[in-house]
Design a protein that fits this description.
The protein is an alpha+beta fold and 227 residues long. It is built from eight helices and seven strands; from the N terminus they run βαααββαααβαβαββ. The longest helix has 17 residues. The relative contact order is 0.16. This is N-acetyltransferase domain-containing protein.
Length: 227
């Protein structure tokens, strides 16, 4: 745990640090976020973490408009740095593909046909609000917080706030709207950083055959740029 003298900072994430950050992601969400559970299958197992880390590494290496950040704590000179949080901010000028198989190796990640179909339908609805925001930007684009996770042992210490404000500052500098599909648990944090709910509960039409599965509870939140 942190000591009173510890400070939280934000820095760019290296490829080598992605496995550590994926463990933070898994511990942060546990099994309380259905979208995370489906998007990163078995994320709390060694095989799931290996696969998730591999996917994040490919994302980081191929998406030039995505910035991977870490929140770190370091008590003083010579003390070991601890990664306690992770965030991914993306400058998005083109609408994301509505078809999951255009952004993921779907057969490898979701070998079960029902899981794949369920995730495909979730994804199709998930990208609708940000797609509309991009269309409404008249070519400027938006700044999207695609992932935010803070280790449960280091929450309420400012890591989440620092990671969010890094992106809202970058959005302001570009004159762009910032958006996030946030969980209800994180709502207060986002509101403290200036984001406001535009859609109180995002809609996921997954069909009658998946009525027994947990659907995500996500709030679509936005923040206008401050000049």
């Amino acid at each position: 745990m942190m000591r009173p003298a510890d400070k939280v900072g934000v820095a760019l994430l290296s490829d080598e640090e992605i496995p550590t950050c994926f463990q933070v992601l898994s511990k942060s969400f546990g099994h309380d976020a259905p979208f995370v559970d489906m998007y990163f299958p078995d994320h709390d197992t060694s095989s799931g973490q290996a696969q998730g880390s591999k996917r994040l590494t490919v994302w980081k290496q191929t998406a030039k408009n995505s910035t991977f950040l870490k929140a770190v704590t370091q008590a003083g000179q010579g003390d070991q740095e601890h990664i306690i949080g992770v965030a991914i901010w993306t400058y998005m000028k083109e609408p994301p593909p509505a078809e999951l198989d255009k952004v993921e190796n779907v057969e490898e990640v979701w070998p079960d046909e029902d899981d794949l179909e369920f995730m495909t339908r979730l994804w199709r609805d998930y990208v609708i609000p940000r797609t509309q925001a991009i269309k409404d930007s008249y070519g400027k684009g938006i700044y999207v917080l695609e992932l935010l996770a803070v280790h449960p042992g280091y929450q309420r210490l400012g890591a989440g706030t620092a990671l969010v404000k890094w992106g809202t500052k970058a959005a302001d500098e570009r004159g762009l709207k910032a958006v996030v599909e946030g969980t209800p648990v994180a709502r207060r944090l986002y509101e403290q950083c200036g984001l406001r709910a535009e859609i109180e509960e995002m809609r996921f039409d997954v069909g009658e055959e998946f009525i027994g599965r947990r659907k995500p509870k996500l709030i679509y939140m936005t923040r206008e740029p401050k000049f």
